[in-house]
Amino acid sequence: MPVIEARGLTKTFRMPDKRPGLVGSLTHLVRPKHRERTAVAGIDLTIDAGEAVAYVGPNGAGKSTTVKLLTGILQPTAGQVEVCGIVPHRNRHANARNIGVLFGQRTQLWWDLQVRDSLSLLRDIHRIPRRRYEERLAEFDALLGLGELLPVVTRRLSLGQRMRADLAAALLHSPSVVFLDEPTIGLDIIARQAVRDFLRAECRKGTTVLLTTHDIGDIEEVCRRLVIIDDGRVIFDGPIDVVRQQIARERTLHLTLDAEWTDGLDIDLPGTHLSLGVSPRHISIVFDRSAYGAGEIVAAVSSRVPVADLRIDEPSIEDVVRRAYSGELGQSTSATPA
Ligand SMILES: Nc1ncnc2c1ncn2[C@@H]1O[C@H](COP(=O)(O)OP(=O)(O)OP(=O)(O)O)[C@@H](O)[C@H]1O
Prior knowledge:
antibiotic resistance; disordered C terminus; alpha/beta; binds adenosine-5'-triphosphate; Rossmann fold; ATP-binding cassette domain-containing protein; ATP binding; six-stranded mixed beta sheet; 2 domains; nucleotide-binding; ABC_transporter-like_ATP-bd
């Protein structure tokens, strides 16, 4: 049964169109002009209970606006939306009982309170029975190590600790759906893994997760389905397998050499792809991390020309979007650039 159902969901912002400076402001007062920006342009989206969906796209694609429409913060300009059978903007309070929201860059904990006190305030707000509350804290302790954070004042938490506490706060009332915006941003590998493991465990219990992230690892490890949005439109909606099998394994090694590369585009490592950079002393090699370590590639190159410097790039969301447009991700919705 769908937990999230959107049909033709559209949000257009109307903004004052004025020139900068005092003259611009005065002209605008006399003859106000406006321009429109359609952030979400007719999105159809159906998400079932227990699904974990990555909702990704480049900056300005319309992800946050979609989440704001689903939480009821914004009212759509056109189209329909329901979350757990509730129209979010018409009934924000009822909707709030069913959803949990986490914005990685902000906290919903009280800055000057101990985590324990923030959570207990949220317990009162959500009217969670005491026994259920204690059970939930025990679950969070087992999965997120929450116990050690309870006596700490929020402002003293490290980023990773704060994210764990914020996850507990967002999920305390056992919402059916959680919206997570960059839940692992800035975290070290261990904290990031804890958050991903926790989200997977929540999904297994039937919680629906809509994850907005620029981190390919989050997508790969937490989600089963990928929805790509660009310029307010869904350009791909399908299984995550392609990302997992191809894109997430790909790394690009950029090398600066001590001398010019004159050996053509072959380094005798099957499956790798070499291209020349800004000058013959710069080369880039795309490789599959499950087939090669970066050290092997550097060794192969330096047996011909000494390597002076190197950088490794992980695949980016922009790469995924580019591949969606080029049809490489297989089935897509309407992968035509506007
Ligand atoms: N309140 C607003 N008023 C006017 N324009 C807005 C408003 N909110 C968003 N926009 C515009 O709508 C478009 C989509 O913005 P949105 O924040 O949804 O993108 P996003 O995909 O979440 O981007 P990011 O990854 O940078 O957070 C952008 O062009 C943005 O400038």
